[in-house]
Amino acid sequence: MKNYLNLFVLLLVFTACNQKKTAIKKTAVDKDSVQLKEHAKRFFNDASFWNQPISKNAEIDAKNDYWISLLERDPSGENIGMNVHKYTIPIYEVNSKNIPFQKMKNVPYIEWYDKDMIFRHEPEFDSIGVPVEAYMTASGGADQHIAIVDWEANRAWDMFYVQQLEDGSWQSATGMTYPLDGSGVFDQSDFDVQLGESIHSYGPGVAAGTPIIAGIVRYDEVKSGEIRHKIAGALRFVAYQQYVFPATWTDGNFEGGIPEGAVIQLDPDLDISQFGLTQGELVVAKALQAYGFVVIDFAEATTIRAEYIDDRKDKSWDGILRGWDEPGGIKTIPVEHYRVLQVNNVQKGGDRMKEFFTKKLYFKKD
After folding, report:
1. Residue 239 and residue 272 in contact, taking contact as beta carbons nearer than 8 Å
2. Cα-Cα-Cα-Cα dihedral of 63, 68, 69, 72, to 10°?
3. Where does 21-133 show beta strands of DSSP type E?
4. Cα 211 vs. chain centroid, distance in angstroms?
5. How far apart are CA 330 and CA 284, in angstroms?
6. Within a domain: 364
7. pLDDT by residue (tens digit) across 74-115?
8. Per the domain annotation, does 18 fall within a domain?
9. Which helix (H) or strand (E) holds 126?
10. CA separation (Å) from 142 to 73, 79, 111, 162, 202?
11. Are 113 and 355 a contacting pair, CB within 8 Å?
12. Stretch 294-316: mean pLDDT, rounded?
């Protein structure tokens, strides 16, 4: 009987020790899993211009003081803000194997735009078709962009001025398709664009001739805690017929302005904790310090673009990022804390001077 009792006690001790080891091991695994934060997917290959952080030795352009003074005098009276609810890009992720491809009709003219402007799709966009679905919604504002990406098929489709018609068909002014693991930079020689024309006449949906998905602040990456790419932005005082890589063209109308393709960086030594930013806005500010933002378009204020998600039931920017209609946010950081990095190999090219834009080129009264 005594032997059985001793054996029972030993069994209890052995079981307790094993449970303790298992608990310790499980705790260690859980701790490690918390520390390993998964990066959100980013567009284009690792060598892409868009995915390169700014060198610590990056030089500031000789015209920086003048260019920043232009931004400080913007008649909007604001600093650099964020487009959250309109004039930005909705990005829909799909598995195109399960979606019927549709031919997107071309809208050659837009009533509110330059009356002489002709919009076209690139040939590959029309030949492949688009995996567009009825639930997709164009961004707020007049531009009405939509982007569709299929990670498995390694392909993106991007469009400007997109509309679904009453018969269920779709139309867009521009249309491009390209691989997701490419450079994210179009080859200017692929477009037979001439001085005084718009790049929109050859397929790209952004005036600088860049992919519309490049540089968009995405919900998943903000929630992950890190943005690992440059951010796309727009401003009023864009240089007339001058652009730099990665831009392939420009719609700039301001002589001596900032060329499209230029990179503007938030001072990396700035203490961004002083501006009352949300956790999401801190993520964006850190990316502006590490990667900067790229000028890719004209706008009536200096702005960067967050992914358009107003139509999503499972996503919202509320409490994460604040746009122009809300107090606070990125726009509380004074423009003086930004600098334009050195621009190299400035190219001659771009759209003609347009009254549509020049009417909006005025300064804030002192």
Report:
1. no
2. 170
3. 81-83, 91-93, 105-106
4. 9
5. 8
6. no
7. 988 889 999 999 999 999 999 999 999 999 999 999 988 877
8. no
9. helix 123-128
10. 25, 23, 11, 10, 20
11. no
12. 96
Give a yes or no: residue 15 inside a domain: no
Cα of first residue to Cα of last residue in the chain, in angstroms, is: 100
Quote the number of domains for the chain.
Answer: 1
In angstroms, rounded to a whole number, what is the distance separating the alpha carbons of residues 79 and 73?
10
> Of 239, 249, 253, nearest to 206 (Cα)?
249
**Domain contains 10:** no
Which residues lie closer than 8 Å to 103 by C-beta, 6 or more apart?
126, 129, 130
In this prediction, residue 353 has a pLDDT band, given cuts at 50, 70 and 90, of: confident
Distance CA 91, CA 295 (A): 20
CA atoms of 145 and 92, how far apart (whole Å): 11
Structural domain boundaries, residue 344: 49-358
Beta carbons of 217 and 326 less than 8 angstroms apart: no
Encoding tokens for residue 26? Answer: 């499980």
Q: What global pTM score does this model have? A: 0.88
Spacing of C-alpha 173 from chain mean position: 20
- The span from the CA of 350 to the CA of 357, in Å, is 14
Burial (CB < 10 A; 0-12, 13-18, 19+), residue 118, is: middle
The DSSP H or E segment spanning 28 is helix 2-35
Q: Quick: pLDDT tens for 328-340.
A: 999 999 999 999 9
